[in-house]
């Protein structure tokens, strides 16, 4: 056991990475909506913005979990320059 809290909760590094990418995706979307709202009329209500932000976060989590091994394998097979 390495002493990290994620190990105690049973999260492997791949799952932890995917969840963190999901959080980044969700927060990035919410920041973009808020920035747009500062300059133009709000495109979404607060509730819809949160719902879409959560959907973006879930999509980013799933995408990161599925694509991470493929990208890592592709990077490992790449010849060095």
Automatic annotation (TrEMBL):
Residues 12-74 form the DUF7981 domain. Keywords: Membrane, Transmembrane, Transmembrane helix. InterPro entries: DUF7981. It comes from the Archaea. The keyword Membrane applies. The chain crosses the membrane at residues 18-39, 45-67. This is DUF7981 domain-containing protein.
């Amino acid at each position: 056991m390495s002493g990290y809290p994620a190990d105690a909760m049973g999260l492997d590094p791949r799952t932890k990475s995917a969840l963190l990418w999901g959080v980044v995706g969700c927060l990035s979307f919410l920041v973009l909506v808020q920035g747009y709202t500062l300059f133009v009329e709000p495109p979404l209500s607060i509730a819809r913005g949160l719902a879409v932000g959560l959907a973006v976060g879930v999509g980013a989590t799933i995408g990161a979990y599925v694509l991470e091994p493929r990208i890592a394998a592709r990077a490992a097979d790449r010849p060095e320059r």
